Amino acid sequence: MTAREHLDYLDALRAAGTPGRWTSDSSEIYQAMPGLPDHVNAGDWLGETCRVEGDPHYETSAADAALIVAAVNALPQLTAAIRAVLDLADNLEVLQQRQAVSAVKQQPGSPQESRYAGLRDSTQFAVQGIRTAITEALQ
Fold this sequence. Notes:
The protein is mostly helical. It has helices at residues 3-16, 61-106, 111-138; strands spanning 22-25, 28-31, 45-48.
């Protein structure tokens, strides 16, 4: 799965889930009500982390619920930011290709063409690094 396909998958999951902002109250998760602060849990109950007293992980229930809420609420902005970085990498690659054509047309074999080759290699390295980092992070 490519990075963009993975982002599409995450966006589809978020779109299929309960819309709007979510909030939590200890281990319980709610849909936040428009116009009310997130700490007022007056919206629809969505679920809870279901840890009972005596469970060795009971103390982390509130943190687990807060993490789920934070991830759901941040997902649209995070996927948009990652898409923007991927678009930037694509634009760098297109710019680099245009500069290559321009450098060769001006003076084939000139020092400018040699300097361009180094710039081209470092741009390709940066673009590939961006794509690899994002792809690996999403898997």
